[in-house]
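A reminder from the course coordinator: this example appears on the midterm review sheet, so study it carefully.

Given structure:
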């Protein structure tokens, strides 16, 4: 009894355990908005539906209900749940529109505690949950904190030279004609920087994910500010005061101190837990260049999670994340027999971080799932026996039944790309009723990992 009372006292004093701040990230179109919408929707319905059997508190009937409450952080935009619902409940249903900035939503979850200590305090307990949606692209900027302008420029130009596209060549040739040591004019810099941003946007639209600086393509409120108007430029000589190159260097340094650092300080280091959403299937379908690029971008992103004692992040800020989930999204695009392969492939992709980085008691897991299931699964009889299929409505409104193919269980080799055996279509969400929770695959497993222990 004494032990329980002292635990109860601790809980009272800490009070903190009743709050959980979860960072939701992923590259563009990874499925963050769909995820947060479904996460909240599942919680709002859990007292009336058996929609989360793998979330222990829900299975045990201890979740009493959930509701949206005003967020604490007044400086961040509110996650627009109503807009998402509006799209999903439109006729025909549509996916929510792309988002470009940080936003958050707070949910209060009321539950019956199982832990004796908590029961002593109260019969019902409340967990306040903040879900913060932020673009994974912003994590790609972390390595820039460790590089000066010259080093960064060398690396960028080297990277760009490896991309075989006419627009990249044209920009590199143009940049090579500039003499920024002689030039004083900031108009020229602004013009070339705008062209550089256009180039990054064009790369992004062609499936390239490794875009740096990340804010150039997702500037949020910084659009057109001088701090996002610079570009890589290599010079043998040191710039004299007042020349155009010194201006570039200054803007780069401002970007480091006024854009990258505040993001890590104000957001990243405040997350208790993080989920990194990875859309493995779209690049798998787009081909080798898209897949390799996603793999490199993911490796860069994961550097943000390597808190190791001497890691850059640990030195600058002290992140407090104790759980990190890698989740393969949109698993409703493949047949259930391929989910295990999708998970294995994700494991291979995140291997560099899993293996080499000391996580200092950060628990990790990989899960394949679908936030909003837009297909049904079944079998069709063929001569060779029953073949698993998925059935859904394409974005163009066509009803299709197909076997999308096998997901490779390891990183695909050259022969996979030659065969290109993967047939991926985008599906429209199913009709959604207000009274029913959104259909999902494995959201309960995701939730159990992220907050199951906080609902005991
Ligand atoms: N079938 C299926 N498609 C999904 C799912 N989640 C997301 N999608 C698809 O992926 C697209 C992008 O999803 P979003 O949730 O908007 O992705 P995001 O990460 O918020 O994208 P940005 O805000 O643009 O960075 C959607 O428009 C859907 O086409 C899912 O669970 N199932
Ligand atoms: Mg979004």
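Designed residues:
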């Amino acid at each position: 009894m004494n032990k329980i009372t002292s635990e109860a006292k601790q809980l009272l004093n800490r009070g903190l355990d009743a709050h959980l701040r979860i960072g939701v990230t992923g590259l563009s179109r990874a499925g963050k908005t769909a995820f947060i919408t479904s996460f909240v929707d599942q919680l709002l319905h859990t007292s009336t539906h058996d929609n989360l059997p793998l979330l222990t508190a829900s299975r045990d009937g201890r979740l009493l209900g959930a509701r949206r409450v005003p967020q604490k952080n007044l400086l961040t935009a509110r996650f627009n749940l109503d807009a998402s619902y509006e799209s999903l409940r439109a006729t025909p249903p549509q996916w929510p529109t792309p988002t470009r900035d940080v936003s958050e939503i707070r949910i209060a979850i009321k539950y019956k505690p199982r832990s004796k200590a908590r029961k002593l305090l109260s019969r019902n307990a409340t967990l306040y949950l903040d879900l913060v949606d932020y673009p994974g692209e912003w994590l790609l900027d972390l390595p820039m904190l460790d590089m000066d302008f010259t080093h960064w420029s060398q690396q960028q130009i080297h990277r760009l030279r490896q991309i075989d596209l006419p627009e990249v060549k044209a920009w590199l040739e143009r940049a090579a004609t500039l003499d920024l040591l002689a030039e004083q004019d900031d108009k020229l810099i602004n013009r070339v920087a705008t062209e550089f941003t256009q180039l990054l946007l064009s790369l992004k639209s062609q499936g390239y994910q490794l875009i740096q600086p990340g804010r150039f393509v997702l500037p949020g409120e910084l659009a057109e500010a001088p701090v996002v108007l610079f570009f890589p430029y290599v010079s043998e000589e040191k710039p004299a005061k007042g020349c155009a190159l010194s201006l570039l260097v200054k803007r780069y340094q401002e970007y480091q101190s006024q854009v990258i650092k505040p993001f890590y300080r104000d957001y990243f280091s405040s997350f208790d837990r993080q989920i990194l959403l990875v859309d493995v299937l779209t690049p798998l379908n787009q081909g080798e260049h898209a897949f390799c690029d996603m793999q490199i971008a993911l490796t860069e992103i994961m550097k943000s999670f390597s808190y190791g004692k001497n890691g850059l992040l640990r030195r600058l800020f002290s992140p407090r994340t104790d759980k990190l989930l890698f989740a393969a999204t949109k698993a409703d695009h493949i047949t259930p027999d391929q989910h295990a392969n999708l998970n294995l492939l994700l494991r291979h992709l995140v291997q560099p971080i899993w293996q080499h980085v000391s996580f200092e008691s950060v628990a990790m897991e990989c899960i394949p799932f679908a936030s909003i299931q837009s297909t049904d699964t079944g079998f069709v009889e063929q001569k060779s026996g029953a073949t698993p299929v998925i059935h859904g409505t394409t974005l163009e409104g066509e009803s299709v039944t197909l076997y999308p193919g096998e997901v490779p269980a390891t990183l695909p080799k050259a022969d996979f790309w030659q065969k290109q055996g993967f047939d991926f279509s985008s599906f429209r969400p199913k009709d959604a009723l207000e009274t029913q929770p959104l259909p999902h695959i494995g959201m309960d497993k995701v939730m159990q990992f992220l907050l199951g222990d906080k609902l005991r």
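The longest helix spans residues 244-266. Residues 13-17 have pLDDT under 50 and may be disordered.
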